[in-house]
Design a protein that fits this description.
By secondary structure, this protein is of the alpha/beta class. Among the domains are: 115 residues, P-loop containing nucleotide triphosphate hydrolases (Rossmann fold, 3-Layer(aba) Sandwich); 276 residues, Four Helix Bundle (Hemerythrin (Met), subunit A). It is 59% helix and 8% strand. It is built from 25 helices and nine strands. α14 packs antiparallel against α17. The chain is elongated, with a radius of gyration of 42 Å. This is Cytochrome P450 CYP6CY8.
Length: 665
Amino acid sequence: MESLIRIVNKLQDVFSVFGEQQLTDLPQLVNLPQIVVVGTQSSGKSSVLESIVGKSFLPRGTGVVTRAPLVIQMIRYTEETKKSMLMSNNIEDSENITEWVEFLHRPNAYYFDFDLVRNEIECRTNILAGSNKGITKNQILLKIHTNRYDLTFVDLPGITKVAVGDQPADIDEQIQELIISYVKQSNSIILAVVTANTDPSTSESLQIAKKLDPDGIRTIAVVTKLDLIDEGTQQDTKDLLCGRRIPVKLGIIGVVNRSQKDIVENKSMDATLKSETEFLKTNYPDICTKHGNRALAHTLQMVLITHIKKVYPKLKIELEEMKQKLGKQLLALYTPDNKISFLIGLLKDISKSYEDTINGNQNDVPVEKIVGGANIARIFQQKYLKTINAIDPLQDLSNENIAKILLNTSGTNQSTFVNEKALQKILSRQLNNLIDPSLDCVELVRSEMLNILNSIDTRCLDILKRYPQLNEDVQKVFEKLLEQNVNNIKEFIASYIESYQECLNTANPDFIMEIVKSNNTIQEEILAAANINKSSDENSTEKIEINRIQMLNQLLSGLNNQEVSLESSEQVMLHRDLSICYFEYIRKIVRDFVPKRIKHKMINSFLKDLDKRLNQEIFQTYLIDNKIDEVLLESESYKKDRIDVEAKLDAVRKALKSMVDIQYF
């Protein structure tokens, strides 16, 4: 079972190759199962860890001493492992060597003196965090080879409230942010260190744990300084140790560690453990076996092993997903061996991906937003049709305006019953209101088609970002091709609507039907103006409609010879109503025509020509001007990114390989 912990140690090792900048984000990058140690500066956190390890090796002093996340891996060695280490260091006398340490940042260096281990931690901390008592998110990873047990934990900087010396003024916020970045991870076990001589309700470590693990399912509490409480408060302390005051699920363990006097006098760890055992037996005889540093180490082992087995399936899925993601990133960052083939393939991929995005055939369909052709459809449905349907057929046209048009188009002659010249002028004026919304629709589609270029396959977009000149030239091809299509279609749409403005056809059956389908008021006004009455002996709705169509056809084709004197107001109402019906008739035609024309002559034509134009204006031009090598010159930043992604991908693959062994436990 202890090998499970060693596998997690391997995972910590492989992810440390990401370098200092990436190590900053390690807790967010991979949610590893680990124990994170949280406590205030004076809580006895360092003493707890040293008691578990059995050696004094952590930096000590005033203020913030632990200034970097310290990943401590305890590895129980075998005799074979020890022999191999001794041989590699040419050491023959091994009787006094029972533990040794390795640092990940110092490969092939072995430390047998734990005072030197402390010095190396301090030195590395100063390199990573500076010498001004500030902190860093970058980890220091050390392996302690021991004959005790397998265990791993992360020691975090002690919580503080006040900056001292030349520490940053916001040191407390920095430490809180660092601690939370580890504690918030669902796979982290929180080892909250609290002191027995303070009120647990005010404990900073427990407050953080409660905030990020409200049910206490990931929290173990360690109560230190049991030997410093007053005799009269022992029952309160016992209640605390029995879980009656701290709501945590993984256990509460009390410990007695070395005092400052013990440290100064260099009291051994074995002697400290012996003193602790005697103290617990004397003061807490009925619960003594459940407390102490030995009980703590055993509990941490069992909790960590159980937790590793529990989170394994989810962690494996996360690593598989990360492998896929990094693989795609690396694909976009690879250096082409044959730049000509690479460029041809890229341009074809851009064209294909753009067409797929327009037609809704993309591989990764977004679920959080509308993109591609769907957005163009929304322009037609929610913007264009809404705008065109909202236009008033009589916009800015009063009855007085109509009367003046009737008079001005008659000249010296009396206005005829249906003044087609006046009707044509009225409709030409009103149908003009359909032009601007239709041309605006073209512009909206043009803008969206340019935006769609940013929604194509992310691999293509990532490659374009690597080569600024190529990216700019692709943008220019899109803009130029769209401009040509837009100008042509705008001219055609405007001309199409103008043809209805200039050429009226009031005898068109569809227009007649528009009158028939209009509301009763308009029908009655038109028929009254023509002095046409309903036949009282006809009771069939169908016959009435047929009769009306025949009469309207006669009226509007100029075949009605009734000599009836029409008053000016009747004539105005007649031309107003005819204008409304004719406008509605043309509006239906235009609102159906414009989206179809845009799809056919703007979108489809663009897609048909895109591949050819990219080839002609980019590849052929680069080839003729001998610019391919120049344009595909990769910046240093992208070389660095590629190396970084390769390292990450290699680490994830190693991690997955290491995790294969877990399934056998």
